[in-house]
Amino acid sequence: MSADATATRGLTGWLDPRRYGIRHQVGAVGLVLLAFAPYLVPTVWVRNLTIALFFAMFAMSWDVVSGYTGQISFGHAFFFAIGGYSSALLNLELGLPPVVTVPIAVVVTVVAGLLVGVPALRLRGPYFSLVTLVAPTILLNVFILFSGTFGGELGLDSPAPILSFDDLVVTLVANYYLAFALFVGILAVLLAVTRSDAGAVFTAIREDEDAVAASGLNPAKFKVFAFALSAAVGGLAGAVFVHTPVGNPNPSQLLALTVSIEVIIAAILGGMGTIVGAAVAGIFLRLFQLYLGTVEYVVPVLDTAVADVDLLLFSLVTLVLLFALPGGIVRWAVHGGGTALDNIRGRDAATDGGRDPPDRDVLDAVQERWREDVADLQARVGGGRR
Fold first, then answer.
1. Terminal CA-to-CA distance of the chain, rounded, Å?
2. Is 151 in contact with 25 (CB distance < 8 Å)?
3. Is residue 326 scored above 80 in pLDDT?
4. How many angstroms separate the CA atoms of 79 and 360, rounded?
5. Burial 73-109 (b: 16+ CB within 10 A, else e)
6. CA-CA distance, 374 to 366, in Å (whole number)?
7. Distance CA 55, CA 121 (A)
8. Alpha carbons 383 and 152: distance in angstroms, whole number
9. Beta bridge partners of 305
């Protein structure tokens, strides 16, 4: 058999969907639907989908460090703001084009992330989280203190767009595909990293950092790598975001505490430590929130339009989902789908669907580590010793 025929068969086999599992096929269908979305939905939803894609990127950047290593960051908006403001200022003040300002902004974000992360990652559990919570607060106060440069609470003027056309619809569609391409690229990179040996070490650090150190590996090195990768992704998404029609360099979109909280909720609701879960829930949550804001139906008891209480309803629905699906939407769908398929095929389905048991719940692992760290803190306050 010739080398060309072998190569062709290899390529054909690689493209054959039957060689992949159901969940991969469903994921591929989802990406195809997103690729054709501008031709399937009204123009206003093209804009909303663009917003949702950027929010999903923010959620994925959180998941790669907090979902995998268990280092819970409460202030990930710090990265989005550094990236967005850096790119906008370079464009507005120096006149540099976005193709130059965006890569510089990513580098600036990684450096800023390392300045905060390297000392913070020496801490564990609530200590680390408190540091990350304070960082964006300091940054916001710097923006307000030097409002002549950073625009204060109102933010900066819109910088030059990356893609702009005379026709508004064409501009929205072009920027949607810009966001979609960035989303797919970030998803592919993060999946490659987290499914590699480095990702296995990330997970091991989350489960038992002392055991990783005892095996001869340096947990600090891997945590810094995960933090830098997360900063780069968050900074890149923030930098591109401000150069599109759906984003502006202002605190409410990039630096507010609610931004950090919503990103955490999306990643947990989708399934911590999966990347795909953060992407799916990020898109779903943002679209759902935007949809509620358009519903004019008046709730009889409250005598209030749904659009007027959209944040309340959004929070309640999110709370119910977190209680109902503590492992995340993706894990629930994968294991539920596996059980259903086994039943359809007539196999003896075990309680776990006859498949490999799921990993220990990520939230349980993180909670266990937090309990240990809080107990350590209590022992220190009470005069105990580690």
1. 66
2. no
3. no
4. 30
5. bbbbbbbbbbbbbbbbbbbbeeebebeebbeebbebb
6. 12
7. 25
8. 44
9. 298
Asked whether the beta carbons of 151 and 143 are under 8 A apart, the reply is yes
Residue among 246, 185, 180, 165 nearest 38 (CA): 180
Q: Which helix H or strand E contains 370, and what residues bound it?
A: helix 362-381
Confidence of residue 118 (pLDDT cuts 50, 70, 90): confident
Are the C-beta atoms of residues 54 and 246 closer than 8 Å to each other? Answer: yes
Report yes or no: 169 and 43 within 8 Å, Cβ to Cβ.
yes
Phi, psi angle pair for 298, to nearest 5°: -90, 125
Rounded Cα distance between 163 and 180, Å, is: 14
Distance CA 253, CA 237 (A): 12
List the single range of 11-25, 157-171, 369-383 with lowest mean pLDDT: 369-383
Strands (E), the chain: 298-299, 304-305
